[in-house]
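Our consortium's second objective concerns turning raw sequence data into structural hypotheses that experimental partners can test. To show how far this objective has progressed, the report includes one record in full. It was chosen at random from the queue rather than selected for favorable results. The single chain below, 99 residues long, was entered without modification.
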Amino acid sequence: TGIKDGQRGHLFELHVDQPQRAADLLKNTMDRWRVSLFGDRLHVIVDKDIDGGGRDFEDTLAREGIRIVSDREARFSLEDVFISVVEQARMQGKVARED
């Protein structure tokens, strides 16, 4: 859809050997909204392209002993777009924060 096509950045889908630990780690090293856990897969949104350091999260996982089984650049799902839009609006003060 047009909404998904208009999303900026790159989405990586990762299958890792420790998905919950990987999600927690990345949420502590990146903006939390950039990391979503879908079963045994992670979605990670980055602004940089692949050649410009957009895959720095892989080094973070490797340093902590988390193995990436497979990865690919993927298209944004509607859920990814929703999370991104809401969190960016929160950061700009357009949406109330949860307490």
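The partners drew two points from this record. The longest strand covers residues 10-16. The radius of gyration is 14 Å. Both points have been shared with the crystallography group to help prioritize constructs.
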